[in-house]
Specification:
Elements: H1 19-27, H2 33-68, E1 79-84, E2 96-97, H3 105-112, E3 117-125, H4 129-138, E4 140-145, E5 148-156, H5 158-173, E6 189-195, H6 196-203, H7 206-212, E7 221-222, E8 231-233, E9 235-239, E10 241-246, E11 255-256, E12 261-266, E13 275-278, E14 284-290, E15 293-298, E16 306-311, E17 327-328, H8 335-343, H9 350-359, E18 366-374, E19 401-409, H10 417-431, E20 435-441
Parallel strand pairs: 19-20
Antiparallel strand pairs: 1-9, 1-17, 2-9, 3-6, 3-8, 4-5, 4-7, 5-6, 10-16, 11-12, 12-15, 13-16, 14-15, 18-19
Helix pairs in contact: 1-2, 6-7
Length: about 450
């Protein structure tokens, strides 16, 4: 393949040269059939076997080193998908609602409704990033209620983002390295509200207003105009993370130092490949992960209602009508990734950058094509990333040069391509602090 080595892809792709085909093509240039027959016997059956044997030895050597540099399985990988609420399968023990309150419609409505506005529900916009921006800029849409025209407001669903931020802090409290959670689906959810003043104004007199009362969300018919076919209702985001509650009565107290107690969260009877994290609170002083257990230091001798996170080992199971793709932060396992993890010193080369990108679970949608360094930061305004709650004050973003990564679409025009780029950039930004990372699709 021409330019393959020069393009710095040798470290992340298999060598594409086909020796047998090359020899066959060269043999065609020999006009004398007897001489061609002799050359074929010598080259193809002789040299060809030597080359095949050499390649096999290299494969075995790589496999042996690969096994020697094996790293512990990642128990904290996340996967996310979306389903219609009517298709949700509560017996599926690998996928759970991101926000359990989504299954309690009346409770959620009561919680998010205020004196100033009525919560009408949450919608999912099945569209690319550009249309998302237009939808958000639109801001409000016409709706009908009790034969009257009103306006409803849409806003990004912040409660999902708050859950991801809480997960991030739980990782920190448990001293587990954070990996960017792919929030491509969560970023496409919007809450819909009706201002209370709209109802009062349209109701006329106080007597009429009391007669109508507070409208039921189902009674309001919203017109999304050009976005109508992209707006989906009753969509439920799922992921492989489950909340658990535990009490001190469930565990033994191994001992105390006179000031604190140590409680054990035993992992003996848990799935070995799954991940467990303890949600910190004001009663917990320290969380320490040990073999087959998690030790929790506290001044409390007894407790109840403490929370733990159970992260189910991937792959997740698809129930009936779970058709949407999984968005994961799983990394592709390879010899180079294990070797790089063992070295502990990342290389700032094009080959290493491409390797990190290609290890992420995005290759079905996008591929990295090239990169360049830009000095003029004003040409690339900041984009909302997937780690916006992570603070890096050592290297202010505005003072960094731009690392511009160019991507090519594998699934042309797919509505998830843009969020795949944002996911890659968010994760690479966690690993590279010298530059402000920007991704573009060309």
């Amino acid at each position: 393949m021409s330019g393959w080595a020069e393009d710095n892809r040798s470290a992340v792709q298999e060598y594409p040269f086909d020796f047998e085909r090359y020899i066959e093509e060269q043999l065609r240039k020999i006009d004398d059939l007897e001489e061609r027959k002799y050359a074929k016997e010598a080259l193809l059956h002789g040299l060809g076997r030597i080359l095949a044997c050499t390649e096999e030895k290299y494969r075995k050597l790589e496999q042996r080193i690969y096994e020697e540099t094996e790293i512990a399985a990642n128990r904290y990988e996340t996967a996310m998908t979306i389903v219609q609420k009517k298709h949700y399968d509560p017996t599926n023990e690998t996928l759970f609602p991101v926000d359990p309150m989504d299954l309690q419609k009346e409770v959620l409505t009561e919680k998010l409704t205020t004196d100033r506005e009525l919560f009408l529900g949450t919608v999912f916009l099945e569209a690319d990033d550009n249309m998302q921006e237009q939808f958000l800029n639109e801001g409000s849409f016409s709706a009908s209620f009790a034969q009257r025209e009103v306006r409803v407001q849409i806003r990004p669903t912040e409660r999902y983002q708050a859950i991801i931020e809480r997960l991030y802090h739980i990782f920190l409290d448990n001293h587990v390295p954070w990996q960017t959670v792919h929030t491509g689906y969560l970023d496409k959810f919007y809450d819909v509200y009706l201002k209370s003043s709209e109802v009062r104004e349209e109701s006329g007199t106080q007597e009429q207003h009391e007669k109508i009362g507070r409208p039921v969300p189902e009674e309001i018919k919203i017109r999304y105009d050009a976005y109508e076919r992209f707006v989906k209702t009753d969509v439920l985001p799922l992921w492989n993370v489950e909340w658990l509650s535990f009490d001190s009565a469930d565990f033994m107290i191994p001992g105390m130092d006179g000031l604190c107690y140590e409680h054990e969260f035993s992992l003996e009877d848990q799935e070995e490949q799954d991940g467990y994290l303890i949600a910190s609170n004001e009663e917990i002083l320290e969380i320490r992960h040990e073999k087959k257990k998690i030790v929790i230091r506290s001044r409390k001798e007894t407790f109840e209602g403490w929370k733990a996170l159970h992260i189910v080992r991937l792959p997740a199971v698809r129930s009936l009508d779970y058709d949407a793709p999984f968005l994961t932060n799983r990394r592709r396992d390879s010899f180079l990734s294990r070797y790089a993890a063992g070295c502990g010193v990342p290389l700032l080369t094009k080959a290493d950058l491409f390797r990190r990108i290609m290890e992420l679970d995005v290759r079905d949608y996008i591929e990295a094509e090239d990169y360049e360094i830009r000095e003029h930061t004003e040409d690339f305004p900041a984009v909302r990333g997937m780690n916006r709650f992570v603070r890096d004050e050592l290297f202010p973003m505005e003072s960094r040069r731009i690392l511009l990564i160019r991507f090519r679409e594998v699934k042309t025009g797919h509505y998830l391509n843009g969020c795949m780029v944002r996911f890659v950039i968010s994760q690479i930004q966690m690993e590279i602090s010298e530059y402000r990372c920007v991704g573009v699709i060309e």
